[in-house]
């Protein structure tokens, strides 16, 4: 039986582990399918306080892992396949066949990229279709690519691609972008980024590899084929909460609902931190902050539980 199991190895999970381990809870952290979370797939992180020159995302996650391990976190490179959070102890079934029993659980499973839903996205995934410019941009050096989306992620990835690729075609479905002003300005000032306003991707062309995109202007109805070798999707994310449906209260978009100013979920001893409960801020620093909160909430909840159990035992013995 473990006092605390943490699900997820992004900034929220590792920060929760650092705090919990230093509080003597000997946490077990299940790294999940994407070790290091989304930051393990980014390049430069320039907005995390304490790194005046910036730091590479994978490097930062490696530092967080080492810090969590230094204080005694037991990191398991495994994936939770099923959970039962309504019982005491809570149970977590791992893909590696082990079943963990825990008094408290912190969920920090993050979110995953959204896709457009085109058949060709699946067929050509890894053959030109990608949701991560930093991971795959390198393959299209000197070649034209397209990227869909008008948020900060799309802008950031378009800028990254513009340094590698000959042309970057940005498909924005409205006549304005959702991205912050500064990111939009940077994109607009980059000569090899071409913004196609009011434009959607109708299909990705190519049998074995991406060869182009058929796009349509939503205002004029005009269709056009662009020759591109890479097709990047950057239209947002969805929370990784499939495991918890029917047990935890989720919002309409599937994010875990927490009680105001805390990381408590609707179930006692279950806490949520990071992007899995945050549709608004979604930053590494806010994920780390809520990871810290979850560890403090879990520690206090476990102390109160132990005190209540000792009081009950004393009453029985009287
Ligand atoms: P957002 O939700 O902010 O933006 C999604 C973009 O994709 C929007 O332009 C949206 O269009 C478009 N979109 C959504 N669905 C479709 C679709 N089916 N077809 C075409 N376009 C679609 O997601 P991001 O991932 O960009 O950003 C998430 C959060 O992370 C934000 O808060 C952002 O500020 C933050 N972030 C910050 C960064 C930084 O500070 N360095 C870097 C990256 C992200 P529409 O506007 O029409 O809905």
Which SSEs are present, and which pair or pack?
Blueprint: E1 2-7, H1 11-22, E2 28-30, E3 44-45, E4 55-56, H2 57-70, E5 74-76, E6 80-84, E7 90-94, E8 99-107, E9 111-113, H3 119-123, E10 129-130, H4 133-136, E11 145-148, H5 152-162, E12 168-171, H6 181-188, E13 193-196, E14 199-205, E15 212-217, E16 223-226, E17 230-233, E18 237-239, E19 270-272, H7 284-317
Parallel strand pairs: 1-2, 1-8, 2-5, 8-19, 10-17, 11-12, 11-17, 12-13
Antiparallel strand pairs: 3-4, 6-7, 7-8, 9-18, 14-15, 15-16
Residues 47, 116, 148-154, 156, 173-174, 177-178, 235-237, 282 line the site of NADPH dihydro-nicotinamide-adenine-dinucleotide phosphate (NDP).
Give a nutshell description of this structure.
The protein has helices at residues 11-22, 57-70, 119-123, 133-136, 152-162, 181-188, 284-317, and strands at 2-7, 28-30, 44-45, 55-56, 74-76, 80-84, 90-94, 99-107, 111-113, 129-130, 145-148, 168-171, 193-196, 199-205, 212-217, 223-226, 230-233, 237-239, 270-272. The chain has 318 residues and is of the alpha/beta class.
């Amino acid at each position: 039986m473990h006092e605390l199991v943490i699900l997820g190895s992004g900034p929220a999970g590792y920060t929760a582990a650092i705090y919990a381990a230093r509080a003597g809870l000997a946490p077990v952290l299940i790294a999940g399918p994407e070790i290091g979370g989304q930051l393990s797939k980014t390049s430069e992180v320039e907005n995390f306080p304490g790194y005046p020159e910036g730091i590479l995302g994978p490097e930062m996650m490696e530092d967080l892992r080492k810090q969590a391990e230094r204080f005694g976190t037991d990191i398991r490179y495994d994936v939770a396949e099923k959970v039962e959070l309504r019982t005491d102890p809570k149970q977590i079934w791992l893909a590696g066949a082990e079943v963990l029993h825990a008094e408290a659980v912190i969920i920090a499973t993050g979110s995953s990229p959204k896709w457009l839903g085109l058949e060709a996205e699946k067929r050509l995934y890894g053959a030109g279709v990608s949701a991560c410019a930093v991971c795959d941009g390198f393959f299209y050096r000197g070649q034209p690519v397209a990227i869909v989306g008008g948020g900060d992620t799309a802008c950031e990835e378009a800028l990254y691609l513009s340094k590698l690729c000959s042309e970057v075609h940005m498909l924005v479905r409205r006549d304005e972008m959702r991205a912050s002003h500064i990111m939009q300005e940077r994109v607009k000032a980059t000569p090899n980024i071409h913004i196609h306003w009011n434009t959607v991707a109708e299909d990705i062309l190519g049998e074995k590899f991406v060869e182009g995109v058929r796009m349509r202007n939503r205002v004029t109805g005009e269709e056009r084929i662009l020759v591109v070798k890479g097709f990047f999707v950057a239209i947002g994310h969805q929370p990784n909460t499939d495991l918890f449906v029917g047990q935890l209260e989720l919002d309409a978009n599937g994010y875990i609902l927490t009680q105001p100013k805390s990381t408590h979920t609707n179930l006692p001893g279950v806490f949520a931190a990071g992007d899995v409960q945050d549709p608004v801020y979604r930053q590494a620093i806010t994920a780390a902050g809520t990871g810290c909160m979850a560890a403090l909430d879990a520690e206090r909840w476990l102390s109160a539980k132990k005190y209540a159990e000792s009081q009950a035992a004393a009453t029985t013995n009287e």
